[in-house]
UniProtKB/TrEMBL annotation, chain A:
It is found in: Cytoplasm, Cytosol. Residues 121-201, 606-653 are annotated as: Disordered. The gene is CHM. This is Rab proteins geranylgeranyltransferase component A. Residues 452-580 form the RAE1/2 domain.
Automatic annotation (TrEMBL), chain B:
Belongs to the small GTPase superfamily. Rab family. One of its GO terms (biological process) is positive regulation of phagocytosis, engulfment. It is found in: Cytoplasmic vesicle, Phagosome membrane; Early endosome. The lineage of its organism: Eukaryota, Metazoa, Chordata, Craniata, Vertebrata. The gene is RAB31. Keywords: Cytoplasmic vesicle, Endosome, GTP-binding, Hydrolase, Lipoprotein, Membrane, Nucleotide-binding, Prenylation. This is RAB31, member RAS onco family. It comes from Sus scrofa.
Length: 653, 195
């Protein structure tokens, strides 16, 4: 890299997860000189989203990771006599128990590669405990093409895929819409017949595949860039702190969202839709007239429950589920309110907590649609990037693939004064924000972490059929046994830009009791069936089929008190990794609190100045011109309005 | 009333080749000799007629994130076109142009229109990159190419007209963007409640 980093900043932020990115944006916005680094090659840390090949590389890294030898300690020579160093970790230890299962048929096509895949080295992805996984795989099927253990990803490319080759593949991809042109143009040698037939879906399909919708593993690989697979699965409450911050700071202009279209419940072995808006309740076919009235009455009360203390004061001591039993609600309705609206469990929350959660849910309804939730197009991983862009717009400097060897502490003052990066460069600053996973074992020896259990599934249809195949659903599956945790299931369709057409991306999340697979597989088995080649006659009752599944545990550092870390100077601030909750409030609260420590009395991410976008020195532009060139609000913009939004200086008008 | 189509355009190219200057010239017909590396500018818009449509370009600047090769994938999301800029007086910048094209192929949308701008053509006496090389390369990747001078306002309009012409006509069946929500201030008020 030809350019050298400046050697002095006000704030250095290490890690590009959501809280770090928000702090970086806030600091930069209020005039601090910010250096924002990440040792990884991508934004977001454990908040990132990946294309399919990106995810495979990530999996691979997490296996290689474990045998990195601790490298040079040359930086130690750079520590002066009156200084001490806090070494940072060289390994990411936040991901454990990675297990991958491929159910889709794996053609013998060796060279299949995601179009445009970059420096992705498709080596075989083996589960961290592949043999064990193979032995104990619990989703058996007769089909021989099922490989329960690790999937063999088409093998060993040279680490840097030949650029020319990549371009060609990409060309194919671009023209690939016209399926019939694909075969002769493709530079991926189509060795297997099956593969060839894939490319000509209707016409020449062989007799064994009379039905549409047959998705092979090589198709997933080829269409891999259509996937944006989140490591953490969250949604935005439409009146949550993150939405408010996005709007206030105008960072929202960098992202687009989809409304979650359905709230689902899983009862008695069936998936059903939960009516939650007024319209839903009235249109519901599953509720009786009486139930509709009961539910509306109860929900109306919850909207401003505080005003009717008589209704709940007597029940404050008991759990919300017990309280619901005292209300005029059928068991059906109690279930909906408890699990799908308040999203709590039999025992977890008190009456007040349950009422608050219900109220929050109801308040978020209708702001953007009929459910309280939004999901960012291209995945949750866009959000840290949006804040990073805001930071950069106000002068923050960005360096990915940039690791920090140590923090340098001044012995006398006890404060951190600099970092030494992987080039041995010393960069000084006043404040240091470090994401939990960057700390070494020495620093974290007393820290107790919780874990999050995660599963990512690629499936062939929705858990609940409806007249649209583009539904985005959230489903809470209550715990089966006491002590276990409810599992949150979020099913994304292809229009969220997170999976290829004809597939669904399903995220399962819960607080860990055991390994991710042990925690989540029972729910996966309830909702899905492994993919098999043989067509099952009765398609109507068939569960969605699993094409691919990944399980892993992620460290949850959200609950860790700062005091649990050893010997941190007062100007080193800790950001946590993702928490297990559905919303993002935790990240925003954390960012705001740390920002207030660093910049007391400063406004947190105020709206950009208006005219905001352009700072030109000695500029003679009229403010109106600039203002009008700002992007318009995207609220149903009429042509007339838009015409007025053009730049008055434009010669074209 | 002509239909307005919003087209996101992202800028790529090495630091210092004149990305911001090109946009500044295009949008504001303005050139600043001392323009600092992109700070504070994130995007600008300009509307130009094209056939029976109006093309409203939403031009995103890199915000300097290209400096240490840390552009975020979100930068390319939904781009209709990319303007990839090199400096005709710097062979290096033409060399890295190819890297940007590769990056775009990897992270950008599939049908993105690419336009290559050889900027600083007012300095052709110290030229290092022959126009022929640029044309050959552009042809090989199916990109529009033009030499520009943001300073002297040469070919800037043409660059964007070239992009306009390459934009495929609007597909009436295309409904991928249906139901996409932009979260903005205007939603702060309102907020009808359902219950």
């Amino acid at each position: 890299m030809a350019e050298n980093l400046p050697s002095e900043f006000d704030v250095i932020v290490i890690g590009t997860g959501l809280p770090e990115s928000i702090i970086a944006a806030a600091c930069s916005r209020s005039g601090q000189r910010v250096l924002h680094v990440d040792s990884r090659s991508y934004y977001g840390g454990n908040w990132a989203s990946f294309s399919f090949s990106g995810l495979l590389s990530w999996l691979k890294e997490h296996q290689e990771n474990s045998n990195i030898l601790s490298e040079c300690s040359a930086w130690q020579e750079k520590i002066l006599e009156n200084e001490e160093a806090i070494a940072l970790s060289r390994r990411d230890k936040t991901i454990q128990h990675v297990e991958v299962f491929c159910y889709a048929s794996q053609d013998l096509d060796e060279d299949v590669e995601e179009a445009g895949a970059l420096q992705k080295n498709h080596a075989s992805v083996t589960s961290a405990k592949s043999t064990e996984a193979a032995d104990s795989a619990c989703l058996p099927t007769e089909d021989e093409s099922l490989s329960t253990a690790s999937c063999e990803i088409p093998t060993e490319q040279t680490p840097r895929s030949d650029p020319k080759n990549a371009l060609e593949v990409n060309d194919v991809e671009a023209t690939g819409e016209k399926e019939n042109r694909r075969d002769d143009k493709t530079c991926v040698p189509s060795t297997s017949e099956e593969e060839t037939s894939e490319n000509v879906p209707i016409a020449e399909d062989t007799a064994e595949q009379p039905k549409k919708n047959r998705i092979t593993y090589s198709q997933i690989i080829k269409e891999g860039r259509r996937f944006n697979i989140d490591l953490v699965s969250k949604l935005l409450y439409s009146r949550g702190l993150l939405i408010d911050l996005l709007i206030k700071s105008n960072v929202s202009r960098y992202a687009e969202f989809k409304n979650i279209t359905r709230i689902l419940a899983f009862r008695e072995g069936r998936v059903e839709q939960v009516p939650c808006s007024r319209a839903d309740v009235f249109n519901s076919k599953q509720l009786t007239m009486v139930e509709k009235r009961m539910l509306m009455k109860f929900l109306t009360f919850c909207m401003d429950y505080e005003e009717y203390p008589d209704e709940y004061k007597a029940y404050e001591e008991i759990s919300f589920s017990e309280y619901l039993k005292t209300q005029k609600l059928t068991p059906n309705l109690q279930y909906f309110v408890l699990h799908s609206i308040a999203m709590t469990s039999e025992t977890a929350s008190s009456t007040i907590d349950g009422l608050k959660a219900t109220q929050n849910f109801l308040h978020c309804l209708g702001r953007y649609g009929n459910t309280p939730f939004l999901f960012p197009l291209y995945g949750q991983g866009e959000l840290p990037q949006c804040f990073c862009r805001m930071c950069a717009v106000f002068g923050g400097i960005y360096c990915l693939r940039h690791s920090v060897q140590c923090l340098v502490v001044d012995k006398e003052s006890g404060k951190c004064k600099a970092i030494i990066d992987h080039f041995g460069q010393r960069i000084i600053a006043k404040h240091f924000i470090v994401e939990d996973s960057y700390f070494s074992e020495n620093t974290c020896s007393r820290v107790q972490y919780r874990q999050i259990s995660r599963a990512v599934l690629v499936t062939d249809k929705s858990v609940l059929k409806s007249n649209s195949d583009q539904q985005i659903s959230i489903l809470t599956v209550p715990a089966d046994e006491p002590g276990a945790f409810a599992v949150r299931v979020i099913e994304l369709c292809s229009s969220t830009m997170t999976c290829m057409k004809g597939t669904y991306l399903v995220h399962l999340t819960c607080t860990s009791s055991k390994t991710a697979r042990e925690d989540l597989e029972p729910v996966v088995q309830k909702l899905f069936t492994p993919y098999t080649e043989t067509e099952i006659e009765n398609e109507e009752v068939e569960k969605p089929r699993l094409l691919w599944a990944l399980y892993f545990n992620m460290r949850d550092s959200s609950d860790v008190s700062r005091n649990s870390y050893n010997d941190l100077p007062s100007n080193v601030y800790v950001c946590s990794g993702p928490d297990c909750g559905l919303g993002n409030d935790n990240a925003v609260k954390q960012a705001e609190a740390l920002f207030q420590q660093i910049c007391p009395k400063e406004d947190f991410c105020p709206p950009p100045p208006n005219p905001e976008d352009i700072i030109l020195e000695g500029d003679s532009l009229q403010p109106e011109a600039l203002e009008s060139s700002a992007i318009p609000e995207a609220s149903s913009e009429t042509p007339k309005e838009s015409a007025n939004l053009g730049n008055p200086e434009e010669p074209s008008e | 009333m002509m239909a307005i189509r919003e087209l996101k355009v992202c800028l790529l190219g090495d630091t210092g080749v004149g990305k911001s200057s090109i946009v500044c010239r295009f949008v504001q017909d303005h050139f600043d000799h001392n323009i600092s590396p992109t700070i504070g500018a994130s995007f600008m818009t300009k509307t130009v007629p094209c056939g029976n449509e109006l093309h409203k370009f939403l031009i995103w600047d890199t915000a300097g994130q290209e400096r240490f090769h840390s552009l975020a994938p979100m930068y390319y999301r939904g781009s209709a076109a990319a303007v990839i800029v090199y400096d005709i007086t710097k062979q290096d910048s033409f060399h890295t142009l190819k890297k940007w094209v590769k990056e775009l192929k990897e992270h950008g949308p599939e049908n993105i229109v690419m336009a290559i701008a050889g900027n600083k053509c007012d300095l052709s006496d110290i030229r290092e990159v022959p126009l022929k090389d640029a044309k050959e390369y552009a042809e090989s990747i199916g990109a529009v190419v033009v030499e520009t001078s943001a300073k002297n306002a040469i070919n800037i309009e043409e660059l964007f007209q070239g992009i306009s012409r390459q934009i495929p006509p609007l597909d009436p069946h295309e409904n991928g963007k249906n139901g996409t929500i932009h979260v903005t201030q205007s939603h702060l008020q309102g907020g009808r409640r359902c219950c």
